[in-house]
Design brief:
Elements lengths: L1 E6 L8 E5 L2 H8 L3 E6 L4 E6 L11 H10 L13 E5 L12 H8 L4 E6 L8 E2 L7 H14 L5 E6 L1
Antiparallel strand pairs: 1-2, 1-5, 3-4, 4-5, 6-7, 6-8
Helix pairs in contact: 2-4
């Protein structure tokens, strides 16, 4: 059984943690055939409807923000459409793994979050400020905006405050 997070495209609906047993469970969650979109840092995978954009599903702003934050090269070039499922990347045998506990905790259980950035490279220290956020997606939007305005930012992340 794999633990994942369902991120509905409809922002009036809450995200939810869910257990998945097989391919049909993922297909039911996204409403069709699945497409895998991998993220490397942290090691996660989105499952989205493979034909979501083609059949006119709404943009999933929350999943897209999470994707852009962790894969800045996609910023402004692509979006996720329809409901999305966040899980871990597959293991060496190709089996889907559960979403990282650290991400599940930030998305589901953390009452206060903050944004940190690096400005020189992967070995430079993470820096932040006193600003706090009540939900992950508000913090992610701020991090993306800050990264776009402050060109010295090389990486941004959302962490517990």
């Amino acid at each position: 059984m794999v633990t994942g997070v369902i991120i509905p495209a409809d922002e009036a609906l809450a995200i939810s943690q869910c257990e998945f047993n097989d391919l049909r469970d993922y297909q039911m969650a996204v409403g069709g055939l699945i497409e895998a979109i991998d993220l490397d840092d942290p090691s996660m995978t989105f499952f989205a409807n493979e034909e979501g954009k083609l059949i006119g599903l709404p943009v999933n702003r929350r999943a897209t923000m999470l994707w852009w934050l962790h894969n800045p090269a996609t910023y402004g070039y692509d979006v996720l459409a329809g409901d999305a499922v966040l899980v871990g990347q597959p293991d060496q045998d190709g089996d889907t793994q559960s979403a990282p506990e650290s991400i599940i905790g930030l998305l589901m259980d953390t009452p206060a979050l903050k944004v940190e950035v690096q400005t020189e490279g992967p070995d430079s220290p993470w820096c932040g400020n006193a600003r706090r956020f009540e939900d992950y997606f508000s913090a992610a939007a701020y991090a993306i905006d800050l990264s776009r305005r402050w060109t010295q930012v090389t990486r941004a992340r959302v962490i517990a405050a």
